[in-house]
Amino acid sequence: xxxxxxxxxxxxxxxxxxxxxxxxxxxxxxxxxxxxxxxxxxxxxxxxxxxxxxxxxxxxxxxxxxxxxxxxxxxxxxxxxxxxxxxxxxxxxxxxxxxxxxxxxxxxxxxxxxxxxxxxxxxxxxxxxxxxxxxxxxxxxxxxxxxxxxxxxxxxxxxxxxxxxxxxxxxxxxxxxxxxxxxxxxxxxxxxxxxxxxxxxxxxxxxxxxxxxxxxxxxxxxxxxxxxxxxxxxxxxxxxxxxxxxxxxxxxxxxxxxxxxxxxxxxxxxxxxxxxxxxxxxxxxxxxxxxxxxxxxxxxxxxxxxxxxxxxxxxxxxxxxxxxxxxxxxxxxxxxxxxxxxxxxxxxxxxxxxxxxxxxxxxxxxxxxxxxxxxxxxxxxxxxxxxxxxxxxxxxxxxxxxxxxxxxxxxxxxxx
Length: 416
Ligand code: HAM
Prior knowledge:
By secondary structure, the chain is of the alpha+beta class. It is 35% helix and 21% strand. It has helices spanning 17-33, 47-54, 59-64, 83-92, 95-98, 139-155, 174-185, 194-202, 229-244, 289-292, 307-316, 339-351, 365-374, 385-389, 411-415; strands at 37-38, 44-46, 67-69, 75-78, 104-113, 125-134, 162-167, 250-251, 263-270, 279-285, 300-306, 329-334, 356-358, 379-384, 392-397, 403-407. β3 and β4 (75-78) form a beta hairpin.
């Protein structure tokens, strides 16, 4: 009996882990520079948290959640997205009270679970690099989170990214727009795709981002032209700051996002060449969500960026990690008499924070050196019985082939 990983999941083996870690680390460092602190929430939450926040009629809530009953008969759902758990944790841990500026800035790197049809760039377990700025209605904060994502993609060496922006309005202007949209589309309803006909009833805004009827939606009324004064001014200010920061954007009235909590700003980062899934990341403002989750009225805004899609895009563009970085020390023990000494040295180096390895098969010196070179170790230490008796070891630079004698007692200092 051979087991296989579940469909739509990936193993991150030691071979590809450095690339994953490098992307995650770059994101962590950038987020920290912008003043965001890391948040880690449980892998599962109360199902109701997702239903209330994401919206019952969305694809995520209606058909993609991994929901089960635990042994205590509670309905549990694996993390279906990152924003609702962040808001729950914000309220539960009173993060607003500990923050003097009343703007709580959080980032996370977490797995997300969605039962979707797997294809290139779409998984049942994917990972998101997320940002949530909770507490400020200021359009400059929208621009900050967008610029963080934009600069992250640039740092990852990704080119050809389009930033698409829209405003989905607020409870005082969106409902009138939705009515207008329905009226306009009603006559052509029989010709629209099945999903549009369903959305017409359940979630009319989502008709706008239909892939099948995309061209027809060009004729639909545009939300940006129907916004209330406050939402219109907010959008203009977000765009003005993005302009000042030199971040190019395109207004796209079909960006409405697949989650119900968005208000005002909605945005997406797209890139060609990563399969059918062109959305590298996306997000928006969610000014009603904290209140919906039982807190005081509190605005928020953020993006979520798919980690796997960044890796795919980097691959497409040939932006993989340079694999010629040598690191660490390989200890070559010549003969059984020095083997124990080799093991002690191995531990000394590792405890001193250095990468070190030895050959437990104890092959010939030539075989060991060839192996150390192919594994990109920076140097080899050669332990011979006679030299060691004199307190001396050989230190070979594996890049240049140069070898010198070093006193055993000075070795650690030298390698550091
Ligand atoms: P989302 O658009 O559902 O937003 O997901 C954000 C990003 O996660 C997508 O743009 C994509 O890069 C990646 N992603 C989503 N689903 C998959 C999948 N099945 N396989 C691979 N990658 C995927 C949210 O989840 C919001 N919580 C984002 C947000 C943060 N809004 C405000 N703050």
